[in-house]
Amino acid sequence: MAEHKRKKNSQNIKHTKQKKIRSNTKKLYTVSIALPGSIIDNAQSIELKTYLAGQLARSFAIFNVDEIVIFNELGMQKSSQSQIDSHTKNKREEGISSDPNVFLARILQYLETPQYLRKELFPVHQDLTYAGLLNPLDCPHHVRKEEKSPFREGVIINKKSGGETSLVNAGLSKHVIIDKSIKPGVRVTLDMGNYETSKNDNQYIEAKVISPKVPKQHGLYWGYNIRIADSISKVFTECSYPVRNKEIANIQNF
């Protein structure tokens, strides 16, 4: 009995170590998934549409998807990336999107964004009426206020006088200051270094802006990007990740 218990404990320890290794292993590939926005039309109400989009977002996060491509299966140019780019919108919007591609993209983008940034990045919109009821994705970049992380997502809130630095809301008790001048409302990825908020007596926390690819290079899943394609062929031809030329040549005639 004791021998069986020791064997079981050793297996649990081995499984835990393997799981930890997998989570810290650098991923040498990217995962993209394409789906038509028309799947949202199958839902009968905005509540069900939102719930369906939320379930999709959770699945994408669980499988560490890097890019989500929402394509128009009719091949008509109805949508554009600017329609869902909430980072550059400064006015309130009204009405539910008639384009299911835009609706799905907006919900997915909302859920991917850390909760402490949503108020500043997303204007009030009826598409998001029930988005607050969805379960959070709890991705590694959704860092809590008192949680220490080498990287954080933030949004520029103000430029300091002199134009050489900017203040960033990174979901901490203090604002972060960076040595770059960036216009307010832009989302950035921060390298926080070895900061200690409880021991930091300065007015601001110093950090530097980095590429969103850097956390992924350290083995962290750092959310997904969203792209709208006007046709299924553009899912491949407009891909931002390397695709073999032979494959593109065959797809362009599709």
TrEMBL record:
State the CDD domains in the record.
HsC9orf114-like (cd18086)
Q: Which domain of life is it from?
A: Eukaryota
Ranges where the record places region Disordered: 1-22
Tell me the first and last residues of the signal peptide: none
PANTHER family with a match to the protein in the record: CLASS IV SAM-BINDING METHYLTRANSFERASE-RELATED, METHYLTRANSFERASE C9ORF114-RELATED
Family recorded in the similarity comment = Belongs to the class IV-like SAM-binding methyltransferase superfamily.
Protein's UniProt name? Uncharacterized protein
